[in-house]
Amino acid sequence: MSKIESEAKKKIIAFSNNKEMKSEQEPIAFGLKALKITFVSDESKGSTDALEENIKKIAGVNSVEVIDVRRAIG
Predict the structure, then answer these.
(1) Model confidence over 1-44: pLDDT tens digits?
(2) Distance between CA atoms of residues 8 and 2, nearest Å
(3) Which of 9, 61, 62, 63 matches a 20 to 30 Å C-alpha distance to 28?
(4) pTM, whole model, 2 decimals?
(5) CA distances (Å), 31 to each of 5, 7, 26, 45, in order?
């Protein structure tokens, strides 16, 4: 799981140009785990579809899903 996390973070940094992120593992069922990574990206980057496709290519990744998008105000 640490290899997947490391590779995913590299792809997120390349997409967002931001190294600040938080990650956590969450047990799902039958020994499966979800890796949740929270990061900030400029809205001008647009959709995360390309990032999701890149992360899906990492060996051992079954699926990728964006579960929350927020707009920062200030």
Answers:
(1) 999 999 999 999 999 998 999 999 999 999 999 999 999 888 88
(2) 10
(3) 9
(4) 0.85
(5) 17, 21, 10, 35
Residue 25 neighbours by CB under 8 Å, 6+ apart = 1, 33, 34, 35, 36
- Structure-token match 């990574």, residue found: 37
Q: Calculate the CA dihedral of residues 2, 61, 36, 7 and round it to 10 degrees.
A: 50
* Location of structure tokens 């496709």: 53
The candidate with the shortest Cα–Cα distance to 39, out of 62, 61, 63, 72, is: 72
Residue 26 backbone zone (phi > 0: left; psi -120 to 50: alpha; other: beta): beta
Cα–Cα distance for residue pair 45/36, rounded to 1 Å: 21
